[in-house]
Write a structure and sequence with these properties.
By secondary structure, this protein is mainly α. It folds into two domains: 3-46, no CATH class; 53-128, no CATH class. It has helices at residues 3-12, 21-31, 34-46, 53-62, 66-78, 82-85, 92-96, 109-112, 117-128.
């Protein structure tokens, strides 16, 4: 099945087309320009038809393995200042990253797996908010 066939099937049905949606996503993501995939995902995360950003990130975190969890968290944390980190995740992040100093924090998969989806939801919700000057 080609890229356009996959996209057409998803556009024309109210239900998920037959087949493996993970494989379909991989094929589309591999065939489409990265900016198009990025914009599509951003639009989906901001849509009024989807749950709030923090909730979706928390759910993704809960359904991910520890490597994926660490990658997701490190991306979120990269945009937050060290002062913010100490209070997020119920204070757990501050304890985990105590020695990070001014460096960009990097959680290991083992550290990431210690957080709950609810804590990650809080982090994602905070990360989504506009920076206050």
């Amino acid at each position: 099945m080609g890229l356009m066939d996959i996209l057409q099937n998803y556009m024309n049905t109210g239900n998920t087309p037959a087949g493996d949606s993970h494989a379909h996503f991989d094929e589309v993501a591999g065939s489409a320009p990265p900016q198009v995939v990025s914009n599509g995902l951003a639009d989906a995360f901001r849509s009024d038809s989807t749950p709030p950003f923090g909730q979706m990130v928390g759910q993704l975190f809960g359904n991910s393995n520890s490597q994926q969890q660490a990658g997701m968290l490190n991306q979120l944390l990269g945009g937050l200042g060290p002062g913010v980190l100490s209070g997020l995740g119920g204070g757990m992040l501050g304890r985990m990253l105590g020695g990070a100093g001014g460096a960009t924090p990097q959680l290991t998969p083992e550290q990431a797996s210690q957080l709950t989806p609810e804590q990650v939801q809080q982090i994602a919700t905070h990360a989504e908010q506009p920076t206050r000057a």
